[in-house]
Design a protein that fits this description.
By secondary structure, the chain is an alpha/beta fold. The chain is built from 17 helices and eleven strands. β1 and β2 form a beta hairpin. The chain binds 6-O-phosphono-beta-D-fructofuranose (F6P). The site of 6-O-phosphono-beta-D-fructofuranose has 14 residues, from loops. Belongs to the GPI family.
């Protein structure tokens, strides 16, 4: 289930000249009409609402009746997807073609959960066995102590996806901490006993500056010298892990992009340690079910494709460049951060994947989020009253805390209507209490929060299927996840050269700071680098 989140859709594949396509032009003309149509009118059309609903794998459902679309909009978007050969591009990805053009790599994270690759399965088995050994106390430190805690050292994709799934599914057996930022060491290790802590160093490259610095600090904290009994590595580099002094390597491969590694060893090992082998296996199964749906479902019923097309519609045709992701579940607190990286590192691009020419339409969305209802007490005022921001609501038909579930559900189902419909326009309210509505959202519902949702109780549950205000048109709907992408935009969603630029710059400035320190008498106070140093082209 959770991996529905991770499916990144790389929407079309025609870098330049997208705006010139007849399908694009037709959508532009249609958008003018839709901009002038209020969502209040749209949600009153029961037939429309019934159609804008999808069922996906693992019991998930998606209600996108509160997007500013009609069935005509969707036809036009499907036409664009066809003309851009989205499904053919999906097939190329699944076949393992080297679609990450700038790095000349395949993009095969889906192979991590297919169980068809014996190398992958061997690593999964190794992870699950090791994790169960640690959890049961069969595997101990050299001093004979059972492990009480796990410290996962990693950053970016080696932290965000893994932390999200651990926080979503962990039990109380082991304390699990994540250490990413270079100044987070003390907080991350506070209260842990180094004699009983397992350090997992997760880094595909095993060269990322922050991770390696924290990993060295962790070794010193464990006692220094040979601490290999309490250090393991998740990486694509066997040599580097061995040189670092870890006792075990849980490998993954260069065809797994860092931000897609929630189902590779950096995600699977912490999850198996925090929630057990069974949960980790079900998590993989859920991801495989979503992959199968993505690979097989027709365009019009394909959840990741429809969600991606809605993203393109909002961004490129309705000029809505942000998206809020709001899961109504405290355990999904780190979910928005994971989606944020998936979307913004993947699709924050400005040139075509193949021709490397400037795109003629902007790609990517700004993604941010917090769990509901916390988010209602922070940025929802803006969502209701200021510029429109499409919202992805995520919820569960059965919550992890039964006593709180009705409160959560009431809010989850109230917000989409409040955003879409707003307040009455009859002039009875003072201006500061009037809300125009017409703000798009969608709702993704899962049966329950679990590694792999089993049966969807949607059809036989006790949820009302009538909305008090809108009648049957507002069926409570929809699923769970959404990622965005750019097969339509024609970009390379699989590299992250902008991040690399920042890394290069930081290395330059760090050298400057060290040089300044060694020639300075003032302790730790360093001058701002000269402007020339900020420009990597002058290096
Ligand atoms: O931030 C860039 C990036 O390469 C991400 O894509 C990746 O998730 C992160 O750094 C960590 O990289 P590594 O796993 O190699 O330490």
């Amino acid at each position: 289930m959770m991996m529905t989140v991770g499916v990144l859709i790389w929407v079309v594949g025609v870098a330049s000249g997208l705006r010139e396509r007849p399908e694009w032009r037709a959508l532009e003309a249609h958008a003018e009409e839709m901009k002038a149509t209020h969502l209040r009118e749209l949600v009153e059309d029961e037939e429309r609402c019934a159609r804008l609903f999808l069922e996906g794998p693992c019991g998930l459902v998606v209600d996108y009746a509160r997007q500013k679309v009609t069935t005509r909009t969707m036809e036009l978007l499907f036409g664009l997807a066809k003309s851009c050969e989205v499904m053919a591009k999906r097939d190329r990805m699944m076949r393992g073609e080297r679609i990450n053009t700038s790095e000349d790599r395949a993009v095969l994270h889906a192979a991590l959960r297919s169980s068809r690759d014996s190398r992958v399965e061997a690593v999964v088995e190794k992870i699950l066995k090791f994790a169960e050994g640690v959890r049961s106390g069969d595997l101990r430190t050299a001093a004979g102590d059972a492990f009480a805690a796990v410290l996962v050292v990693g950053i970016g994709g080696s932290q965000l996806g893994p932390e999200f799934v651990v926080r979503a599914l962990e039990d109380a057996r082991l304390e699990t901490r994540f250490l990413g930022n270079v100044d987070a060491f003390e907080v991350a290790t506070r209260g842990l006993d180094p004699r009983r802590t397992l350090v997992v160093v997760s880094s595909k490259s095993f060269t990322t500056t922050e991770t390696m610095r924290n990993a060295e600090r962790a070794k010193a904290w464990l006692g220094g010298g040979d601490v290999s009994d309490r250090v393991v590595g998740c990486s694509a580099s066997r040599e580097k892990v061995e040189a670092f002094g870890a006792s075990r390597l849980f490998e993954f491969w260069d065809w797994v992009g860092g931000r897609f590694s929630a189902t590779a060893s950096p995600g699977l090992l912490p999850l198996a340690l925090a929630a057990g082998a069974d949960a980790a296996r079900k998590f993989l199964d859920g991801a495989a079910a979503v992959d199968a749906h993505f690979a097989e479902a027709p365009l019009e019923r394909n959840v990741p494709v429809v969600l991606a097309l809605l993203g393109v519609w909002n961004k490129n045709f309705l000029d809505l460049c942000c998206r809020a992701v709001v899961p109504y579940a405290a355990r999904l607190a780190r979910f928005p951060a994971h989606v944020q990286q998936l979307e913004m590192e993947s699709n924050g691009k400005s040139v075509g994947a193949n021709d490397h020419r400037q795109l003629d339409v902007p790609a990517g969305e700004i993604v941010f989020g917090e769990p509901g209802t916390d988010a209602q007490h922070s940025f929802f005022q803006f969502l209701h009253a200021a510029s429109p921001v499409p919202v992805d609501f995520v919820g569960f038909l059965r919550g992890t805390d039964a006593a709180a579930h009705d409160d959560l559900s009431a809010n989850l189902f109230a917000q989409p209507d409040a955003l879409a419909i707003g307040t009455p326009e009859d002039g009875t309210l003072p201006p500061y209490k009037r809300f125009a509505g017409d703000r798009p959202s969608l709702t993704i519902l899962f049966p329950r929060l679990e590694p792999r949702s089993a049966r969807c109780p949607f059809r036989d549950n006790n949820f009302p299927t009538n909305h008090p205000r809108l009648g049957r048109s507002s069926r409570f709907t929809n699923i769970a996840r959404r990622s965005r992408g750019a097969w339509l935009w024609g970009i390379n969603s699989w590299d992250q050269m902008g991040v690399e630029l920042g890394k290069t710059l930081a290395a330059t400035i760090r050298a400057h700071i060290q040089a300044a320190k060694s020639s300075s008498t003032t302790d730790g106070v360093v001058a701002q680098p000269a402007p020339a140093m900020m420009n990597p082209s002058t290096r």
